[in-house]
């Protein structure tokens, strides 16, 4: 990989599904970190196959020359009744990431989500959008969580996400408008931006000053079109293969990388596929994606 101003890592979701539990169910932690090291990458997020004891995890990652960049944290701030318990859990999460040397916290509101909201029942069909009170409560909760992160020298990066109440471009805009820019940052995800109906480049340009972390994910247009025609939910879309690694789908990454290079983005950017590794082997797809990115970088550097 040629010289990049930012740090390129990879998410273990390429090997082991988080939203679709059968994807990569038999894959081991050792296989994941061996592959990451073989790819020449030095950053990973937390995955469900990883050791949870910080001492053990630090030692294992250090053996492979890898650092932990972040870990997903679901929150339920849109309902004020949950705030106190959620903030307590958030502090514990921050303490773990601080101990691991991470600098950002991938944070996502699950209120209203068909799949992630613990209050939803199995027979429901749609994501519930927020009313004014829920938006206000969410913003207040995120600001409070962001202040906790800041105490430990970390940044709360909000993950706009398919299948949640903050996925569409106007919802990303609303979240950024309502939250404190000194406490709440954005996790810019190319695949989730497109899935939610946004132009990823437009989101990147509009909210660049709030972006502190990036997920690089591609979309298979034909599968997205079929899923939308069938009114398929988010997890069904993953099972059908809507997401893939950069260079294997329909997104135009050239202007995205150009923007990042021109602006000297210096944070982490993580490769993500989120597809069945039995059909799309994680190492092979990541290698092809890195070659694709290398070609783009070379072209932009001329």
Description:
The protein is of the alpha/beta class and about 300 residues long. Helices cover about 40% and strands about 15% of the residues. Helix 3 packs parallel to helix 4 (about 130-150). The mean pLDDT is about 95. Strand 6, helix 5 (about 170-180) and strand 7 form a beta-alpha-beta unit. It starts with 6 loop residues before the first strand and ends with a helix. The radius of gyration is 18 Å and the shape is globular. The strands form three sheets. The protein has a seven-stranded parallel sheet. The longest helix has 20 residues, at about 130-150.
Compile the SSE list and pairings.
Layout: E1 7-10, H1 29-39, E2 43-45, H2 54-63, E3 67-70, E4 73-75, H3 83-99, E5 104-109, H4 132-151, E6 155-159, H5 169-178, E7 184-189, H6 190-195, H7 200-206, E8 211-216, E9 218-219, H8 221-229, H9 234-239, E10 243-244, H10 254-262, E11 268-271, H11 282-301
Parallel strand pairs: 1-11, 2-3, 4-5, 5-6, 6-7, 7-8, 8-11
Antiparallel strand pairs: 9-10
Helix pairs in contact: 3-4
């Amino acid at each position: 990989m040629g010289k990049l101003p930012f740090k390129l890592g990879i998410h273990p979701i390429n090997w082991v599904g988080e939203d679709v539990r059968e994807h990569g169910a038999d894959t081991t932690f050792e296989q994941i970190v061996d592959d990451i090291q073989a790819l020449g990458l030095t950053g990973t997020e937390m995955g469900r196959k990883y050791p949870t004891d910080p001492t053990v995890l630090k030692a294992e990652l250090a053996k492979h020359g890898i650092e932990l960049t972040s870990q997903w944290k679901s929150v339920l701030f849109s309902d004020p009744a949950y705030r106190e318990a959620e903030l307590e859990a958030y502090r514990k999460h921050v303490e773990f990431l601080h101990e691991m040397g991470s600098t950002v916290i991938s944070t996502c509101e699950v209120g209203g989500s068909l799949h992630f909201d613990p209050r939803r029942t199995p027979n429901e069909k749609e994501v519930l959008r927020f009313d004014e009170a829920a938006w206000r409560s969410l913003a207040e909760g995120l600001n409070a969580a962001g202040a906790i992160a800041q105490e430990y020298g970390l940044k709360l990066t909000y993950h706009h996400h398919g299948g949640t109440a903050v996925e569409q471009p106007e919802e990303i805009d609303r979240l950024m408008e309502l939250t404190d820019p000194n406490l709440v940052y954005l996790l810019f995800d190319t695949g989730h931006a497109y899935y939610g109906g946004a132009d990823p480049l437009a989101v990147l340009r509009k909210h660049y000053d709030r972006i502190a972390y990036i997920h690089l994910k591609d979309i298979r247009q034909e599968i997205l079109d079929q899923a939308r025609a069938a009114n398929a939910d988010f997890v069904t879309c993953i099972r059908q293969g809507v997401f893939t690694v950069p260079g294997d789908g329909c997104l135009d990454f050239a202007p995205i990388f150009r923007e990042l290079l021109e602006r000297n983005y210096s944070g982490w950017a993580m490769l993500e596929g989120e597809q069945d590794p039995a059909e799309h082997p994680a190492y092979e797809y990541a290698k092809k994606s890195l070659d694709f990115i290398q070609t783009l970088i070379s072209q932009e550097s001329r």
